[in-house]
Amino acid sequence: MLRYVTTNEGKIAEAREYLDDVSALDFDCTEIQSDSLGAIAARGAREAHAHADEPVIVDDAGLFVDALSGFPGPYSSYVEDTVGIEGVGRLAERERDEGQDDRAVFRCVIAFCDGEEFAASPDPVDRGDRVSAAATGPTDGEAGDDNGGDSDASGPPVKLFEGAVRGRIVEPRGDGGFGYDPIFEHDGTTLAEMSTAEKNAISHRGRALAKFGEWYHERK
Q1: What's 101's DSSP letter?
Q2: pLDDT tens-digit profile of 117-173?
Q3: Is 192 left (phi over 0), alpha (psi -120 to 50) or beta?
Q4: How far is the C-alpha of 71 from the C-alpha of 79, rounded, in Å?
Q5: Closest alpha carbon to 134 in 46, 28, 5
Q6: Would you state the torsion angle of the CA atoms of residues 185, 67, 33, 4, taken in this order, to the nearest 10 degrees?
Q7: Are 4 and 24 in contact (CB under 8 A)?
Q8: Reported confidence tier of residue 84, pLDDT bands at 50, 70, 90
Q9: Which domain holds residue 130?
Q10: What is the CATH number of the domain that holds 55?
Q11: Cα distance between residue 89 and residue 81, in whole Å
């Protein structure tokens, strides 16, 4: 059984599109302060595995706005609660240069840990210094491309998989979705204007889950 650390049934439903045997695990991971989604998810995966003693996946996601140099990024949840999505939209409007577009990207990192080594499935990306990799997570060059790895001396190795979807920041539209969905437009439609099926088909989390699912089934 693979355990997904979440209490969001929507995430579980989406994960079951890519994984045969997955269930929710209600566990409150420590959310470290880091500029890297990978580092945050990896720490959570190690903690969750130590707690459950079962294979686990943990995700971390964020909205990265080009005009704000990638802000709010890993701090998206906190910024949503304190500034609000419309506040982020106004901030992006004020900060971007005249003539610059409103580009942004949603990113999600899935971290997997089962306490075992990954020698049978070596990383396709040469991460070099594995201890540094544990601290930083996937590099920009790996974002939305190959799956990275994570290892450090204080815990079991963690495998990282990233998904991303590009779009632009707009005035809020739509009544569906959650979080930043009303201000994130992809191919002319905000995520809040999409049906659940339409959103899942292009979502950053879905893309990360698809990469993980392919690797996980091969590993099994």
Answers
A1: -
A2: 764 333 333 333 333 334 333 433 333 333 455 544 467 889 999 999 999 999 999
A3: alpha
A4: 9
A5: 46
A6: 20
A7: yes
A8: very high
A9: 2-219
A10: 3.90.950.10
A11: 14
CA distance 85 to 64: 13
Rounded Cα gap, residues 5 and 24, in angstroms: 6
The DSSP code for 97 is P
Q: How many domains does the chain have?
A: 1
Q: What is the pTM of this model?
A: 0.80
* 20, 21, 35, 60: the active-site residue: 60
192 Cβ partners below 8 Å, 6+ apart? 172, 173, 174, 175, 176, 177, 181, 182
Q: Is 146 a catalytic residue?
A: no
Longest distance between any two alpha carbons in the chain, whole Å? 53
Q: Comparing 179 with 97, which gets the higher pLDDT?
A: 179
Residue 156 buriedness (CB in 10 A; 0-12 / 13-18 / 19+) = middle
